[in-house]
Specification:
Layout lengths: L1 E2 L1 E4 L4 H7 L5 H4 L3 H5 L5 E6 L2 H7 L5 H11 L5 E5 L12 H13 L4 E4 L10 H9 L3 E7 L8 H13 L4 E5 L7 H14 L4 E4 L7 H10 L4 E4 L13 H10 L2 E2 L4 H20 L13 H5 L3 H13 L6 H14 L9 H15 L8 H8 L11 H8 L17 H7 L7 H9 L1 H13 L3 H12 L1
Helix pairs in contact: 6-7, 6-20, 8-9, 9-10, 14-16, 15-16, 17-18, 20-21
Bound molecules: cobalt (II) ion (CO).
């Protein structure tokens, strides 16, 4: 029987897409053992926004979280999402930081690193891929999927070939906005499988109600694995339900390796967790049903809600239609970048600014200027000539890899903050999120250690 590998996303992507990554370690700790025994191919549990959220909102050390997960999950490989040269932050970091971060992640127990670049400019993932392999972990190269006049099966197959040549252990097709149609999924997986010998994984979101259908068509084309979320944290902006996909695939003659009883226990555990997040208003039931407007505008759901709140803040919500019409224009002018972080924010905000100022590119965002200079990598298509000239302001664009212009900072930062911490893990957290990490490290130090606590209690009793 053909095996289809299932990756469970409840701890990372589903957590991020439905409840803004607010699930704490303590909330999911009791089910880790069962997750480990359900037969998953891997457990996506770290990376993406989890790191930021741990420090910013949950008062949790992200490194400790990873260590504690690994202490329980011993059989199932742990998986993370890494934004290439951006690591888990929002800008490009020098190579020494990328390498140290990956080294530490693997040391703490990470097994599979899914690595992507928003522009599919693989110069921005080559260092991360290289270090992942050096550390003996699995390097999954990613193709970010988007729809545009310049993106076609040929490009995607070429990207897959490039990933294979770079030494990727497997390939992920990342449909972050859930825009992929079933027949496209079939053709895309087929084209990539015919081009490379590597296992191919499909990652999608049920946002537009397409993912289940696309997954099924992808399995017909020979996909090796798909990402699912346990049903109480599935669908809508998250992934298709693990149990439903398991039964459907079994019915089609595939083996998922999952045991249905285990899945039921896991879902029973997460039901009250979901109820809790609905009760406190963190999970808006609206995001649980498909919102196929995304297929018309071809923009991710998160981007749409961002634009609406920006316009509301400017008292200009009546301009929403104008902005929605401006988005494709800006995207075209920028050479059709995929609308994923940070490009989705950049395109959405520039479109809003164009409409609100009443003149296209009267004001150019700082980020758009950096993009035009080549600081984010190579634009997939051609940048509009006039915009480019205006954005560059007589400066020369960078043609090489932007990270090559960045000086190493790890050792220097370590020296600079030696009074704050001596742990390399903290130095990495600090480099990624300087302001919040500083307060976080201080408050962590201020907390008495467990041993100290025990001592204190004893002292009190005496
Ligand atoms: Co995703």
């Amino acid at each position: 029987m053909t095996k289809i590998n299932i990756t469970e996303t409840v701890l990372r992507d589903a957590n991020q897409s439905l409840i803004a990554t607010r699930m704490s370690f303590d909330e999911f700790a009791p089910i880790l053992h069962k997750l480990d025994n359900a037969g998953y191919h891997s457990l996506e549990c770290w990376g993406g926004a989890t790191f930021d959220s741990c420090i910013r909102y949950l008062d949790e050390d992200p490194w400790e979280r990873l260590k504690k997960i690994k202490m329980v999950v011993k059989k199932t490989p742990l998986q993370m999402l890494l934004r290439g040269q951006n690591i888990l932050g929002y800008k490009h970091y020098p190579d020494d930081v990328v390498r140290n971060f990956i080294k530490m992640s693997v040391y703490y127990g990470m097994d599979i690193l899914r690595i992507f670049d928003a522009l599919n400019d693989y110069r921005n993932i080559e260092v991360a891929m290289d270090e992942t392999k050096k550390q003996g972990a699995h390097a999954q190269g990613t193709i970010v999927y988007t729809i545009s006049p310049i993106h076609n099966m040929d490009n995607y197959a070429k990207l897959a070939k490039q990933l294979e040549e770079m030494g990727a252990d497997s390939i992920c097709i990342k449909d972050m906005a859930g825009l992929m149609m079933p027949q496209t999924a079939y053709e895309l997986v087929k084209a990539i499988k015919e081009t490379v010998k590597l296992p191919v994984y499909l990652h999608s979101h049920s946002t537009n109600g397409m993912a289940e259908m696309s997954y099924l068509k992808a399995t017909e084309a020979g996909v090796d694995g798909i990402d699912c979320a346990i049903s109480s944290f599935s669908s809508g902006t998250a992934q298709p339900a693990t149990e439903s996909m398991h039964f459907a695939l079994q019915n089609c003659g595939f083996d998922t390796g999952l045991n249905a009883e285990g899945l039921k226990e896991i879902n029973d555990f997460f039901k009250p967790v979901r109820a809790h997040f609905i009760k406190i208003g963190q999970l808006d039931p609206k995001v649980l049903s498909p919102q196929p407007e995304g297929l018309t505008y071809q923009i991710p759901g998160g981007m749409l809600s961002n634009m609406i709140s920006q316009l509301k803040a400017q008292n200009a919500i009546d301009k929403l239609d104008l902005v929605l019409n401006e988005v494709p224009k800006v995207r075209e002018d920028l050479g059709f970048p995929p609308l994923v972080t940070p490009m989705s924010q950049m395109v959405g905000t520039q479109a809003t600014v164009n409409v609100l100022t009443g003149e296209r590119y009267k004001m150019i965002l700082k980020e758009v200027k950096s993009y035009c200079r080549g600081e984010y990598g190579k634009a997939p298509g051609k940048i509009n000539k006039d915009l480019l000239a205006k954005a560059l302001e007589n400066e020369k664009p960078i043609t090489g890899r932007f990270a090559d212009t960045l000086e190493p900072i790890f050792e220097k930062t370590k020296e600079d903050i030696k009074d704050l911490t001596e742990r390399d893990e903290d130095v990495l957290s600090y480099i990624l999120f300087p302001q919040i990490a500083e307060d976080f490290i201080k408050s962590k130090k201020a907390k008495p250690s467990e041993e100290q606590l025990r001592e204190d209690v004893k002292a009190d009793v005496i």
